[in-house]
Amino acid sequence: MALKLLLVDKDLEWLQAAKSYFEELLYKTVIVGNGKDAQKALYNDKFFAVILNVKTENHSGLQVLKFIKTNHPSQNVIMVTEIEEGIDEEDQLTPEKLKKLGATDSIVKPFEMDDLKGVLEGHQSVGDLVSSIPRRKELGPEEEVDLGDDQFTKVKISEFYSSQPVLFDIFIKLRSNRYIKILHAGDGLSKERLDKYQNEKKVEYLYFQKKDILKYVKFNSYFAKKVISNPKVGGAKKIKMLQNVSEKYLEQAFVDGLKPQIIDQGKDIAENVYDLVTKNEDLFSVFREYADFDPNAYTHAYLVTLFSTAIIKQFEWQSKTTIECTAFACLFHDIGKMKLPPEIATMKVEEMNEEQLEEYKRHPEYGLELIDGKPMINNSVKQIILQHHEHFDGTGFPYGKRGSKILMLSNIVCLADNFVHVIQEQDLKPVEALRVLLQKRDEISWYNTKIVECLINVFVDPAKIVKERAALPSNSRVVNKKVS
User: Fold this and answer.
1) What is the pLDDT of residues 247-301, one digit of tens each?
2) In the chain, which stretches have pLDDT less than 70?
3) C-beta separation of 451 from 415 below 8 A
4) 41, 51 Cβ separation under 8 angstroms
5) Which end of the chain is less congested by CB atoms within 10 angstroms, N or C?
6) Nearest Cα to 228, choosing from 274, 285, 284?
7) Which of 442-465 are b and which e, b meaning 16 or more Cβ less than 10 Å from the residue's Cβ?
8) Helix/strand/coil (H, E, C) string of 16-65?
9) Could you give the CA distance from residue 299 to residue 71 in angstroms, rounded to a whole number?
10) Cβ-contact 304, 326 below 8 angstroms
């Protein structure tokens, strides 16, 4: 069943354009030009979301919002605002103020329709996504399309999981900038059909458009949660499934930035990480042998997340809140590299000259700048990102903090970060990388010795670990009760 939208704006030309746009995306759309008609529409029908301009007349947008929150408190409402010249900043209707008034989200004009689409999709549940796609009675025809490589992302066909029907168009690549659409949104996807492409046609990757990444992440994060909780599924498959979701999530986040809907999705992934490291006692054996990691930045962030949270699990003071907070921070610990010149961001540290190295050392501060002022991200996450290169002996950066002046969680992430660099740069299995790391005597002083001990314990059967050994008094307590 198509999701229904109510669009409310005094700009009738914009309303018609928006109606056409969203109906092409299979939404059922009702448009009205004033607040009074909006209230009538809400009285007579139910909507997935209301997109409401603050400047709506004949009952203002804020009056309509108050009406909705009084009579339809669970209704999604996306408020459309504008930056008004000549009005003090404190008098502007900020997203925070609108949320306090009852808005689900907001968007500021001018914006592209794709931006509004992203906001809407961010508030769709997996059930919404699946139910809104019309099932096709017959498979759509295969179509060759002429689209640029920069519009696509890929996933290994052996690791592609989808709903029935598929939520978006699926392609295979012929050559540069040439693709064949093999499945239309709404087509059924059977294992037999996947096997045909993989085994008979030797297809290694499936492709979909980047605009559909959020749908992919949302469904696969939901699916991963089910698999992670299933004791019959092996740890290696769980790790790989969560890796696929995390990498696609980061791919979108590093392009689109930390929008509210992306932050919300990150919380779901952080919760899946918690479930993975706390509810699967076989991970210690998987960590010893697992080596299916791509050498890219998104994989790096996932691995740092995985090993940081596995280290925290060894401590008596670990909690769901602490692990989820750290997992979220790890996903974005290197986000400040987005502000580095491209030639520096891709260089190895040992290849940098003095000037380049000084700029590189600013990326934790740049990371803090990118997330500062976002109320959905708590102070512990910000401190981890800022301090993830600080060393216990005071030789780190950006501030050269030492000992207890460094948040314990930050020192854990620092160790995990360097450990992952050894794995990726030397193409080693984790247990082999551990031996290399422990042989670097000049670097071991960078970390609290209890943290190093807990990294070693990650590879040991939990039944053989004496819990008292990890009872380190710590300054690791997070600020909020949940990642927010």
Assistant:
1) 999 998 988 888 878 888 999 999 999 999 999 988 999 998 888 777 788 999 9
2) 84-91, 465-484
3) yes
4) no
5) N
6) 274
7) eeeebbbebbbbbbebbbeeeeeb
8) HHHHHHHHHCCCEEEEECCHHHHHHHHHHCCCCEEEEECCCCCCCHHHHH
9) 46
10) no
Q: What angle do CA 38, 44, 45 make, to 5 degrees?
A: 85
What DSSP state is assigned to residue 187? Answer: -
Q: Which of 364, 347, 392, 422 is nearest to 355 (CA)?
A: 347
Question: Using CA atoms, how far apart are residues 299 and 60, in angstroms rounded to an integer?
Answer: 48
DSSP secondary structure string for all residues of 118-155: HHHHHT--HHHHHHHSPPPSSPPPPEEE---GGGEEEE
Q: CB neighbours (10 Å) of residue 62?
A: 19
What does the block give as tokens for 173? 């690549």
Domains in the chain (CATH in brackets) are 4-123 (3.40.50.2300), 135-213 (no CATH), 229-470 (1.10.3210.10)
**Any idea which residue has 């809104």 for tokens?**
132
Q: pLDDT tens-digit profile of 23-37?
A: 988 899 999 999 999
Q: Is the peptide bond before 398 cis (omega within 30 degrees of 0)?
A: yes
Q: How much is the pLDDT for 89? A: 60
| Range list of β-strands (E), 119-270 | 143-145, 152-156, 170-175, 178-183, 205-209
CB 369 within 8 A of CB 339: yes
Q: pTM of the entire structure?
A: 0.85
CA angle 102, 79, 60 (to 5 degrees): 85
Cα–Cα distance, 337 to 345 (Å, whole number): 6
For 75, phi then psi, to 5°, come to -70, 130
